[in-house]
Amino acid sequence: MDLEVLPTNTRRQTMTAREPGEPDACDLIVIGGGMAGLPIANKAAYKGLRTVLVEKEQLGGTCLNRGCIPTKTMLHSARVAHLIRRAGDFGLRTSPPEVDLEAIVDRKNAIVEEIRRGSYRQIASNENLRLVEGEARLEGNGRVRVGDLVLAAPRVVINVGAHPVVPAIEGLDRTAYLTNREALELRELPESMIVVGGGYVGVEFAQMFGRFGTRVTVIQRSGRLLPEEEPDIGDGLSGILEDEGISVLTSSEVFKVEPTPGGVSVHVRSSCGNSVLDAARVLLAVGRRPSTDALGLDRAGVETDDKGFIRVDSRFRTTAGGVFAIGDVTGQPMFTHSARDDADLLYRIIVKDDADASTEGRVVPHAVFTDPEVASVGLTEAQARERGHAVAVGQQKFSGVARARATGETHGFIKLVADNDTGRLLGGHILGPSAGELIHEVALALVMEATVKDLGGAIHVHPTLSEGINAAAGGVHRPSG
């Protein structure tokens, strides 16, 4: 049964009595209803703080509306199509799948809308929480303006997130292009697509549209895909994408684009010279920048770094007294799970007065939801050596893991990085099936300051993919052959 959502800009929260011209006073103002702003606003209000949450678009931020949830929903449809095409590998006969992009987008939208409605219902049931819809601007001294409304609170939390970078490419201002936001709403499958950028967003969208049937080319400026990951991961993923028919051009740079009757021409510079590629669509995936342009940070005394991200300490304090910032607007790490942890830590700081709440020493795993997935936590081998560790490396290919062979998902590997002198685990890196799930064992080991001997000595259920973790640590599940 659908529940009615009350108009949130006419909430019933009682504000402090004020004289004409004075601001509406409350205990806490949260700017941005993303995956960090929502939980801290709700939790603080439930604990009795009169809280105002300001949101200019829709609750849920990037993750819910144009990031994690919609992309993974559509990626799953792409995976199903891929598995159907692979049916013969498993002894099955079937017809090639017909991709109905409109139906896929409708399914995605329905899932997102259901989750979003839950967020609005949660706010509507919270007596101490008021949702104000509009664009916020800091005015200093704890004041925030939203249109004609002026709010005031001793504490202000900024959670306005980030948005796609539009690079300075000649002709881009005269050429139609996509970012992840527009690409998620396409209802007609483009015949061809050029993806500019081989980071997390670029590789996910490239594989998704490739599996839907679009002819895809990825253009990456650096020498490999996912350059922040272990080198073998980027190289391995390139091979996987190319096996699926996706062209991957590394060490290549787009310097000019031009509109054409059929779409767009992309001029590319590489060590082999210049070339021109034509496609129906071009998707920009070259990074993200903070959404702070209209926030008035200077007026409030909030400093940013050279990329525009808000400077915070380990307790989320900005350079302005009483103003905090959490989530993507503070820069790396830019993940929903770290943003949620930001919200939990800041709640403990603001509401619980917890002196130990801090991001210092925090372990943050991450995943890229290609197929197979990529997941990492802790130090890479190069980072460990740079920090002076004598490094020991354990590695296991999925081709040697029984469960992976049974399911026909043998691409990739597990790599563990440890201190050779103490055996203490320093990092883990996975390219392979269910990597986003498997990485949590390594993350927990890092939190517990475990050694590779601890991982190797723990019996794992057979046959499971997690045996690969044990094998990489030299444990009992190491293949004998």
Write the layout of secondary structure elements.
Blueprint: E1 24-25, E2 28-31, H1 37-46, E3 51-55, H2 61-66, H3 68-85, H4 101-124, E4 129-133, E5 136-140, E6 143-146, E7 149-152, E8 155-158, E9 162-164, H5 180-183, E10 192-196, H6 200-212, E11 215-219, H7 231-243, E12 247-249, E13 252-260, E14 263-270, E15 273-279, E16 281-284, E17 288-290, H8 297-300, E18 323-325, H9 336-350, E19 366-368, E20 373-378, H10 381-386, E21 391-397, H11 402-407, E22 413-419, E23 425-432, H12 435-447, H13 452-457, H14 467-472
Number of helices: 14
**Could you say what the CATH architecture of the largest domain is?**
3-Layer(bba) Sandwich
> What is the share of helical residues?
25-40%
Q: Classify the secondary structure makeup into a structural class.
A: alpha/beta
Please tell me how large the radius of gyration is.
24 Å
Q: CATH superfamily name of the largest domain? A: FAD/NAD(P)-binding domain
**What is the total tally of β strands?**
23
Descriptive overview:
This protein is α/β, with parallel strands linked by helices. The protein has three domains: about 10-65 and about 105-165 and about 290-350, FAD/NAD(P)-binding domain; about 170-285, 3-Layer(bba) Sandwich (FAD/NAD(P)-binding domain); about 370-470, Enolase-like, domain 1, CATH 3.30.390. Helices cover about 30% and strands about 25% of the residues. The longest helix has 24 residues, at about 100-125.
